[in-house]
């Protein structure tokens, strides 16, 4: 919304700290109704504080109580807001519920608190899976009631957002679902009015109990421990004993509940675990206000590791270019300091680095451990990964109070850190472990149904008889209070059990690794986990797919390990020639789809095609300019037009199926529909056969299309296949025709003819004819081979296996890279080699910013193996170091640079009417981010848009990434205009500027002392009404459906409040000759809070110009285009009606008939316009 800043109008979507409260416009009494819009903590006009400030001021902890705050919200329509149980604020003073007192207890809103407490206890809206999803591909989209989608409750049917006390009317929900029946409209978590809502479902109740046990255990005053969630497990048995083991209570609380102790953070062995208490960094925070050090405090809360998040600290600093961040400074890099509340003797430190922008090893350049005495211990560079927390053992015999993290990855994100103490920490010495008792049927020998209470979670029963059935349950005991008994374990003594290390078929075990852990390949229920294979007894489990070893059971399933699989009795013919609608000989030749697949893996959501993949498979691209020579060929951008690929086979054959190997399935994040392909076969005579339309998905790769269904002519021999794709983002690695391995399946006398240049569509035909003469085979001449092993069983047949030298890769004549490690087998029959290959040098590509920031590169001799490129620094960056050369290495990567380019600013320019406060600014060589400070001379202040802020005397300017200094000025002081009651009663010499003299026009015109504007920005005296003034204003006329409430009467200075007769409408000032009906959507009228009777006995502003226009709906920036808000007065629905201002890029109209242009993108400042 940068175009909306500094324009003298308050835009609510910019009214936040990140945008400096619309650069002051929202606290300017001339630009806005500050009683509704001013939130800036530095402004004297401020009326509202943020919810966070309110809670910070009150400091009411949420560990033992649910706090409910009552506070009027600037979003008048907001009835309440709640904290989720998984937010790290849930148990701090920032948790709780905020309710709007204007609604609380009013008709229709009596259940608001119930609804908000539902959120606090983990309940989503019942319409989450329909009206709160991001797209039709959103994994949370709900089409049938489910525990996995929507609101995660299987007893609330999918429903759109609705206020009706019945099922909604049939309506298209943009993903094709029209009818919603059995909807939970009477559920407290719907938006239906209160006289309709009266229910939580059993699933919702269970979910709330779960969070009470997991998060809010301290709210319960009861000492009763939480239940043990699953049955005890057998861990060993002998002839006369049975060992069982159980998990702790579901809440994780393993100590007796004493209020306000540290025991909740103590483990059974007395280790004390604590997350970061306070985080700080010398690095300037990004101007967006995201990624601050505070994000690294408290427990981890990043949802999706390895993807950028706003819930973590990052050194990311964009100053002015979103795509270029400021590098971490030499020599230390970017630093994050983390402090822990309780210094402890450490056992280990765990660090959550949830995002890394580079694959370079040792992303952490150093970790410095800080001891309580102020000493430092450096651990040096360390490897870390984004998908698993990184734990390092600390062999330090001193109390540790904090750590410093150092990195040069300016996009790294750190979620938090955990410091674990040595066992038996003094902080845990007063904690009492809860106890357990084991219940058994039949009872024990002494007649007791239960054992005495014990602290550890295992029990050996020595009173057992082989063949006897035993039923065990476990109860937690806290003091004298008993918890509920666990679900039962029923075991026949002597029988096999899961965890005994033997795979027992009668128990339907698939594996048994002798332990009861999930995640190690064999689950605690003795089932193989996805992606694992297990062998032996006890089972050893390993990840099999993609490990490079082709095992017998993978032959039919793993393309990654075993390559394409052809069943016995069939032959796969690979495409020998290919044409495409979108191909370019240099960047994306269709010939990359010929031969066997080189790209084994398939990817979804490919934003950009990596270079190695673009040489291994065909991805549609538009023709580059230098190739567009043919006048018959129209060059079109890759937009909505059809994408097709046609492949030809060496010999026509009877097809049983067509195989399409995918490198990308063409899915796009914004698209609602699965990509599809339509398949058509052709024979030598040009007779076509359709094989229908099929969905593309990486889950089913290769796509195997049955070619026998509906086949009328069993002797039909296909010579080519045409594939029409619905998505331009597909990538095709190979196409094969599967034919029976029988004589006569393929035609031995017909061959694909060499390509003849045709015209128009003829050029894309696969011409077959009689095979050429039969010759003998000789070794192919190929340069730069490391080995060539040929075998022959006659002059007309030869096979050669080829590998290339170091620094060279195999490439087929089609330009397809065949990789550097594997060898390739070529086959010759009758003097005809099945393909031609070369060993080409590895190409590193032209280096870019990722190699050296702020540099440009020159590669006069090319970018292949052992070639060198030099770099020079782009002004104003300066070279640091001597060696400006990079060399292309054998792995296709450039050597590491031995110099870098550093951005600096020269001395800043002089600022008129200001005094420099930092003398060293007059020298040059200032780092990016350096600041110089000035003080404005008397009678001047810092130039800012916000008129209502206190005028600043001190100016600071920063060295920007462009190598230039930020602009800053000192401007003359301006005084506040006199109050509206004086409208039309004064004359001023220079307006309201410094030294301007204003005189009030009074009757009789006596001697008036001028009122002067001083250098402090204030008048020498207050404006006061003339003593002779008398009279009243006429009652304000009720025009344009506006009525006035005049509680102070109609005397001079009296104020009347306008309101609209027909709600919901707002009174606003419209220009002359414009009415509410004729008003253009681009108009942004000022809302009128009150009118005042001036000394000239006229109302100001003039009631004849005040009209009523429809109020804005409270659904701005919610992802749905609300047509009523699609106008400037409502900030064009917060950007919801233009794809360029939506993160999803997809406009979804909200249940409205768009008979004119209300659903179109109207915002004049949006990219589309």
From TrEMBL:
Key words of the record: Disulfide bond, Glycoprotein, Repeat, Signal, Sushi
GO molecular function: metalloendopeptidase activity
Parts forming coiled coils: none
Presence of the UniProt keyword Ion transport in the record: no
A Pfam match: Sushi
InterPro entries: MetalloPept_cat_dom_sf (IPR024079), Myxo_disulph_rpt (IPR011936), Notch_dom (IPR000800), PAPPA/PAPPA2 (IPR043543), PAPPA_SD_C (IPR058897), Peptidase_M43 (IPR008754), Sushi/SCR/CCP_sf (IPR035976), Sushi_SCR_CCP_dom (IPR000436)
GO cellular component, one term: extracellular space
Annotated GO biological process: cell surface receptor signaling pathway; proteolysis
Domain Sushi: 903-972, 973-1028
Gene3D superfamilies, A to Z: Collagenase (Catalytic Domain), Complement Module, domain 1
SUPFAM superfamilies found in the cross-reference section: Complement control module/SCR domain (SSF57535), Metalloproteases ('zincins'), catalytic domain (SSF55486)
Keyword Ribonucleoprotein carried by entry: no
Listed PANTHER family: LAMGL DOMAIN-CONTAINING PROTEIN, PAPPALYSIN-2
Family to which this protein belongs: Belongs to the peptidase M43B family.
Protein name in the entry: Pappalysin-2
Organism: Anas platyrhynchos (Mallard)
């Amino acid at each position: 919304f940068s175009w909306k800043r500094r324009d003298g109008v308050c835009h609510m979507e910019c009214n936040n700290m990140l945008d400096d409260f619309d650069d002051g416009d929202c606290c300017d009494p001339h630009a806005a109704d500050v009683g509704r819009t001013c939130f800036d903590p530095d402004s004297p006009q401020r009326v509202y504080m943020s919810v966070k400030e309110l809670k910070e001021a009150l400091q009411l902890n949420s560990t033992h109580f649910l706090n409910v705050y009552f506070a009027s919200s600037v979003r008048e329509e907001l009835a309440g807001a709640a904290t989720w149980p998984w937010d790290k604020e849930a148990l701090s003073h920032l948790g709780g519920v905020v309710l709007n007192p204007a609604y609380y207890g009013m008709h229709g809103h009596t259940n608001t608190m119930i609804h908000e407490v539902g959120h606090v206890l983990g309940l989503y809206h019942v319409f989450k899976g329909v009206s709160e999803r991001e797209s039709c591909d959103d994994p949370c989209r709900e089409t049938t009631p489910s525990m996995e989608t929507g609101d995660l409750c299987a007893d609330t049917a999918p429903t759109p957002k609705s206020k009706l006390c019945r099922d909604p009317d049939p309506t298209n929900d943009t993903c094709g679902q029209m009818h919603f029946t059995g909807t939970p409209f009477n559920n407290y978590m719907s938006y239906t009015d209160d006289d309709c809502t009266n229910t939580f479902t059993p699933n919702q109740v269970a979910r709330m109990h779960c969070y009470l046990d997991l998060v809010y255990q301290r709210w319960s005053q009861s000492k009763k421990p939480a239940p043990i969630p699953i049955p005890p497990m057998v861990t060993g048995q002998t002839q006369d004993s049975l060992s069982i083991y159980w998990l702790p209570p579901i809440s994780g609380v393993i100590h007796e509940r004493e209020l306000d102790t540290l025991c909740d953070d103590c483990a059974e062995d007395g280790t004390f675990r604590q997350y970061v208490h306070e985080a700080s960094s010398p690095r300037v925070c990004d101007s967006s206000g995201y990624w601050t050090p505070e994000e690294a405090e408290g427990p981890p809360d990043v949802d999706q590791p390895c993807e950028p998040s706003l819930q973590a600290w990052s050194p990311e600093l964009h100053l002015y270019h979103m795509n270029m961040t400021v590098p971490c400074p030499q020599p230390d890099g970017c630093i994050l300091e983390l402090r822990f509340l309780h210094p402890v003797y450490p056992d280990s430190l765990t660090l959550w680095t949830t995002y890394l922008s580079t694959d370079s090893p040792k992303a952490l350049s150093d970790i410095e451990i800080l001891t309580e005495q102020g000493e430092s211990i450096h651990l040096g560079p360390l490897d870390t990964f984004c998908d698993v927390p990184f734990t390092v053992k600390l062999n330090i015999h001193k109390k540790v109070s904090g750590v410093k993290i150092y990195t040069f990855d300016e996009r790294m994100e750190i979620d938090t850190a955990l410091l674990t103490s040595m066992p038996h920490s003094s902080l845990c010495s007063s904690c009492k472990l809860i106890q357990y008792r084991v219940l058994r049927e039949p009872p024990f020998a002494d007649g007791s149904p239960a054992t005495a209470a014990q602290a550890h979670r295992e029990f050996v029963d020595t009173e057992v008889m082989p063949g006897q059935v035993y039923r065990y349950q476990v109860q937690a005991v806290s003091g004298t209070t008993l918890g509920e008994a666990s679900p039962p374990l029923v075991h026949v003594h002597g029988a096999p059990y899961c965890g005994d290390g033997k795979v027992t078929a009668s128990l339907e075990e698939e594996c048994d690794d002798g332990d009861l852990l999930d995640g190690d390949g064999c689950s605690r229920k003795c089932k193989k986990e996805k992606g694992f294979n297990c062998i032996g007894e006890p089972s050893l489990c390993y990840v099999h797919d993609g490990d490079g070893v082709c095992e017998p059971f993978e032959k039919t399933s793993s393309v990654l390990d075993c390559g394409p699989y052809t069943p016995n009795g069939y032959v796969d013919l690979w495409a020998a020639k290919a044409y495409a609608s979108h191909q370019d000989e240099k960047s994306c030749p269709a010939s990359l789809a010929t031969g066997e697949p080189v790209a084994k893996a398939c990817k979804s959501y490919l934003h950009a095609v990596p270079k190695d993949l673009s040489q291994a498979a065909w991805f549609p691209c538009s023709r580059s300019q230098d190739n567009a020579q043919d006048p018959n060929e129209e060059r079109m951008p890759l937009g909505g037009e059809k994408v097709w690929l046609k492949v030809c086979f060496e010999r026509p054959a009877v097809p049983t199926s067509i195989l399409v190997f995918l490198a990308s399935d063409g899915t796009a994040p914004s698209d609602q529909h699965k990509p599809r392909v339509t398949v058509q076969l052709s024979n030598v005579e040009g007779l076509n056969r359709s094989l229908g339309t099929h969905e593309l998905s990486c889950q089913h790769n290769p796509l195997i299309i049955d070619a026998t269904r509906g086949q009328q002519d069993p002797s039909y021999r296909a010579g080519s296949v045409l594939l029409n794709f619905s998505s331009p983002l597909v990538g095709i690695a190979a196409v094969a025709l599967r034919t029976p391995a029988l004589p006569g399946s393929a035609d031995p006398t017909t061959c694909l003819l060499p390509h003849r240049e045709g015209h128009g569509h003829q050029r894309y035909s696969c011409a077959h004819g009689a095979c050429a003469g039969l010759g003998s085979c000789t070794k192919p001449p190929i340069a730069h081979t490391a080995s060539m092993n040929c075998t022959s069983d006659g002059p007309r047949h030869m096979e050669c296996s080829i590998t290339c030298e170091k620094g060279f890769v195999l490439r087929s004549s089609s330009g397809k890279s065949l990789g550097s490690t594997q060898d390739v087998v070529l086959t010759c029959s009758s003097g005809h080699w099945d393909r031609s290959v070369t060993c080409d040098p590895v190409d590193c590509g032209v280096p870019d910013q990722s190699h050296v920031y702020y540099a440009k590169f020159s590669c006069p001799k090319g970018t292949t193996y052992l070639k060198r490129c030099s770099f020079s620094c782009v002004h104003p960056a300066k070279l640091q170091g001597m060696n400006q050369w990079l060399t292309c290495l054998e792995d296709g990567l450039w050597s590491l640079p031995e110099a870098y380019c550093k951005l600096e600013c020269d001395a800043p320019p002089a600022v008129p009417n200001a005094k420099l406060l930092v003398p060293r600014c007059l020298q040059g060589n200032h780092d990016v981010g350096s600041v110089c400070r000035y003080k404005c001379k008397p009678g001047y202040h810092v130039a800012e848009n916000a008129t209502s802020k206190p005028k600043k005397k001190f100016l600071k300017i920063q060295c920007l990434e462009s190598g230039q200094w930020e602009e800053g000025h000192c401007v003359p002081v301006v005084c506040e205009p006199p109050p509206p009651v004086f409208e039309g009663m004064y004359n001023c010499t220079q307006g309201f500027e410094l030294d301007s003299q204003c005189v009030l026009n009074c009757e009789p015109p006596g001697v008036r002392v001028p009122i002067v504007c001083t250098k402090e920005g204030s008048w020498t005296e207050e404006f006061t009404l003339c003593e002779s003034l008398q009279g009243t204003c006429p009652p304000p006329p009720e025009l344009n459906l506006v009525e006035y409430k005049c509680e102070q009467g109609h005397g001079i200075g009296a104020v009347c409040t306008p309101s609209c007769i027909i709600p919901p409408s707002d009174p606003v000032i419209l220009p002359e000759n414009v009415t509410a009906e004729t008003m253009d959507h681009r108009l942004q009228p000022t809302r009128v809070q009150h009118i005042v009777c001036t000394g000239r006995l006229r109302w100001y502003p003039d009631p004849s110009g005040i009209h009523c226009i429809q109020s804005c709906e409270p659904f701005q920036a919610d992802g749905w285009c609300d047509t009523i808000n699609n106008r400037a007065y409502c900030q064009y629905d917060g950007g919801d009606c233009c794809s360029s201002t939506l993160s999803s890029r997809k406009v979804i109209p909200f249940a409205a008939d768009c008979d004119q242009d209300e659903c179109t993108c109207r915002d004049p400042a949006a990219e589309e316009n």
